[in-house]
Specification:
- By secondary structure, the protein is mainly α.
- It folds into 2 domains: 50 residues, no CATH class; 58 residues, no CATH class.
- It is 61% helix and 4% strand.
- It is built from 6 helices and 2 strands.
- The protein has a two-stranded antiparallel ribbon.
- The radius of gyration is 35 Å and the shape is elongated.
- The N and C termini lie far apart (102 Å).
């Protein structure tokens, strides 16, 4: 004799009444109604008050991100690792191009730093830099219609 307290029937019909459809989805009837109203689950079959179990399965698969036809999506980490590897390889020139670009960026940064160091040590370069900055400030002030503040 089957256990009457067993909540999971061994065989389900393809078409379910609302109470059975709600139980199949693990929802109460009011919760099931809410999910149907919000479009998470399909409406009853046209002209009936019954739900197709396959349509319910498809809706639940869509909600959970599961697809029976497509292979599983890679994890977010796997996708990021793949994108990062492609970016580092430069895709247009491979790893060698990436290394050359990196060396060029480092050389440009070193040149900028050397210029900044030279200006900070050389008094004549400091005066030229200060004059250039004052001229730029005066030009901006003229554009804005005010006088630049005088610094001492």
């Amino acid at each position: 004799m089957p256990d009457l307290n067993d909540s999971a029937p061994k065989h389900l019909p393809r078409i379910l009444a609302k109470a059975d459809a709600a139980a199949y989805c693990g929802l109460t009837e009011p919760g099931f109604d809410t999910w149907v109203k919000t479009g998470k689950l399909p409406k009853a079959m046209k002209g009936t008050r019954r739900w197709d179990i396959v349509a319910l399965d498809q809706a639940i698969d869509r909600l959970s991100g599961v697809s029976r036809d497509a292979p599983p999506k890679p994890s977010a980490l796997a996708a990021w690792l793949e994108q990062d590897a492609a970016r580092q390889a430069g895709e247009s020139g491979g790893l060698a191009a990436y290394i050359e670009k990196r060396k060029a960026r480092k050389a440009a940064e070193a040149a900028r730093q050397a210029e900044a160091d030279r200006v900070s040590v050389n008094p004549a370069a400091q005066r030229r830099h200060k004059a250039r900055m004052a001229a730029e400030a005066a030009g901006k002030a003229k554009e804005m219609g005010s006088r630049p503040k005088r610094r001492g």
